[in-house]
Amino acid sequence: MEDVLVPIGVVGMLFIGLPWIVLHYVTKWRAAPKITEEDERMLDEMYNLARRLEDRLNTVERIVAADNPDWRPGLNAPQTPTQYSLDRTHSRSN
């Protein structure tokens, strides 16, 4: 009896279940909201803002590197917010 049920179940899953899942997600994808012109403008503004911020960060890093030759970007940055010190009297070399 099991020799008959397993192949029938596998064939049913292949020819009914798999196409059902694929077609379900295809219809969900087609029904999803499309990107409007306003969304595209917002994405362009966000991209331009990110590019400007990156340029500013690079400028600050160049200025700091010029003032302190031993400084390298990313090496002195704390790994977690708890490593920030509010006491400005201590130097980083301690």
From TrEMBL:
Keywords: Coiled coil, Membrane, Transmembrane, Transmembrane helix. This is Envelope stress response membrane protein PspB. GO terms for biological process: phage shock; regulation of DNA-templated transcription. InterPro entries: Phageshock_PspB. The keyword Membrane applies. Pfam families: PspB (PF06667). Residues 77-86 have a biased composition (Polar residues). The chain crosses the membrane at residues 6-26. The keyword Calcium does not apply. Residues 36-63 form a coiled coil. Residues 70-94 are annotated as: Disordered.
